[in-house]
Amino acid sequence: MEKRKVLIIDDSELNRGILADMLCDKYEVLEACDGSEGIDVIQQYGSELSIILLDLVMPNVNGFDVLQFMNREELINNIPVITISSENNPETMHRSFKLGSTDYITRPYDETIVKNRIHNTIMLYAKQQKLIDIVAEQIYEREKSNDLMINILSHIVEFRNGESGLHVVHIQIITEILLKHLIRKTDKYPLNISDIIMISSASALHDIGKISIPDEILNKPGRFTPEEFAIMKTHSAAGAKMLSQIEIYKDEPLIKFAHEICRWHHERYDGKGYPDGLKGDEIPISAQIVSIADVYDALTSERCHKKAYSHEKAIEMIMNGECGTFNPILLECLVECSDHIRSSLLGETDERRDIISISKEAEYLTKEVLKNENIV
Questions:
Q1: Same domain, 103 and 234
Q2: Which of 25, 16, 90 lies closest to 53 in space, CA to CA?
Q3: What's the pLDDT score for residue 143?
Q4: 74 and 223, same structural domain?
Q5: Which residues of 328-358 are buried (b: 16+ CB within 10 A; e: fewer)?
Q6: 12, 109, 273, 295: which could form a disulfide with 267 (CB 3.0–4.6 Å)?
């Protein structure tokens, strides 16, 4: 088996040698002669390091500087650090622990105690990581199941509407990209990463209300009459009503976001949208984001009544107001993320692969359900 890597950061060659002699039979020992070199080694090996033995008192970049670096880079929770010092005062120890040290050993030290402390710390972190991985896997499987069910529902609508499942995939990808860029650009909208995941998932249900629209209108290969368009516009309120009637889950964040998106993703920033004529930030940000994503994908996709526009032309049309008025901040995000959106929709990114994988699974299950019901 490959030996676990131990990094010793100490400006004293003698001290490094003593520790290396203690550990070299069981571990692969790496050495750094000061804090600056130690940081370089940490950057090089990252999570491959099983533990760091860190001297606190060093010239220029000291042990506290190394701990602060590990905190900034969010490495302190993944790589255990045992600080080693000849100083035995409570203030130094307290500062060391406050910056994330797992243990504190003072010189001179007993070889058996040092070995046991290192072994126990490595084992503790390994068990902790294993538990984290187990919980993460359980959360991933649950979220995958949720996404799968959402995609099945959205695919039923897509099949009725004669569209491919890629529309739902594209909406999710664009929504996530725009949301992540938005929270980096401004703190106007108090969203966290959990909200972004929820909104991206909920976006797949944006057109679920089309289930209530008659086939002859839904799949009409031409322009709607005013009467037909009036019926078509009812899908947003219909979708929101369906979701509001799910009493048992009505307070769940996913349902809340899905309700906002279903009802208001056809509203426009100048108040000229439907069904409620909301204006500006009266429209929830979740619906505003999905609205732009929906319009962009509609423009760049081929439909029964239109050819697909190019990426550049679609961006131009949205920016020129040919598709309605949108939040200026979101328009800036769209332009700034333009290349990212195009590459994510066309390229084989991990993000796209995951969503398409779930979408394909949902498409297969949807076809089976519809086939068994003699619908297709």
A1: no
A2: 16
A3: 60
A4: no
A5: ebbbebbeebeebbbebbeeeeeebeebbeb
A6: 273
Beta strands 49-55; 28-32: pairing state: unpaired
Domains identified in the chain, total number: 2
The structure tokens listed for 339 are: 């290349």
The residue that leads in pLDDT, 249 or 17, is 17
Distance, CA of 288 to CA of 183 (rounded, Å): 14
Q: What local confidence, expressed as pLDDT, does residue 376 receive?
A: 37
Distance (Å, rounded) from C-alpha 99 to C-alpha 164?
52
For 255-287, the pLDDT digits (tens) are 899 999 999 999 999 999 999 999 999 999 999
Containing domain of residue 180, as a range? 133-372
pTM of the model: 0.58
Measuring CA to CA, which residue among 128, 143, 126, 109 is closest to residue 23?
109
pLDDT tens digits, 53-112:
999 989 889 999 999 999 998 898 889 999 988 877 888 899 999 999 999 988 887 888
CA distance 368 to 136: 31
Task: Kindly report the CATH number assigned to the domain that includes residue 32.
Answer: 3.40.50.2300
CATH number at residue 270: 1.10.3210.10
What is the pLDDT at residue 212?
87
Which residues have a catalytic role annotated? 210
Q: Tokens 């009036």 sit at which residue?
A: 230
